[in-house]
Amino acid sequence: MDWMMAVSEWLLPALLAFIPLYAAFRKVPVYESFVDGAKDGFPTAIQIIPHLVGMMVAVSVFRETGALQFYLGLLKPLWSVVHFPEEAVPLALLRPISGAGSLAYIESLFRTYGPDSFISRLGATMQGSTDTTLYVLTVYFGAVGIRNSLYAIKVGLMADLAGMLASWLVVTWVFGS
Amino acid sequence: MVNYIWLFMLISGVIAAAMQGQMDIVTAAALKGAKEGVAVCFGLISILVFWQGMMRIAQHAGLLDKLARVLAPAARLLFPDVPKDHPALGYIVSNMSANLFGLGNAATPMGIKAMEELQKLNPDPKSATPAMCTLLALNTSSLTLIPTTMIGLRMEYGSVQPEVIIGTTIFATCCSTLTAIVLDRWYRRRLNA
Fold first, then answer.
1. Cβ–Cβ under 8 Å, residues A55 and A135
2. Does ipTM top 0.95?
3. Are the Cβ atoms of B33 and A56 closer than 8 angstroms?
4. Which residues cross the membrane (chain A) (predicted)?
């Protein structure tokens, strides 16, 4: 465990030292190259604003008005039939649309049930195994001005579903319910 | 599809508020969302500026080409329509490596850089190419070896064994990424048919 956290702690600083050092060795003017590349970052971020604002407004309206709660209630019989843990259902729906929202929900699980409970382990596995599909799509495609995303969103959402089901199966198998 | 999801979220939100007779929630929520969107973009500025600078050094030093060459077989398999020595491959490979090691902050700028390179190969700049969809599929399902955020959060909440979720997360992330790759392939083939 400790060595794993150490690896992730060391990885970034190591990269920060290695890249410029290697480049300097290859006679690259490191600082000038950095500044040259870095100036592209700003317009890219600005380009994403309209896309992200549009998406965040819809997600926020969907969540805060209770529409999300309503659909959760509507789908309730479905979970009961397959015995999917009820507390994990909001997470499954939140995960693809809001990274901050699903993280907040997980914290509430940790607080209520403790981090070592079955439901918290399931939640952490679900959260860690995929990324926020809607956000990734908005940022990546928004940055280059793509309007027509073809089938990308379908693939992303179905992969999320597969990740959720796999989390549920493996956590049940490893930790028991 | 994105159009429908967007419309669905907005309209069901407005209807839900109307049914509760509290229309002011909608206005507040919309403004809050807009604020969040801008805030996230401003947060992205520092990350993008910093990492695009680092990536330029790596590119000038020939590190990206080297990385792309080492992992070329995998990249060629997933991105058959990207020319062999195209710079996009270097960024794609670094994006995937950053995801793998849980460096989310670094993965995004690299992924965006890869998208920009793929956009140069795109005959219609408003519409995504299959290669872009594959890159997106890999990022939404995000293959991770160490779920750093979750382990950190579990430690913060006093877990006795914060690391036990590593195994289950690796299993689940492999399933979702595999599903993404298979589906992406299937849709890509249907598009070409």
1. yes
2. no
3. yes
4. 42-62, 155-175
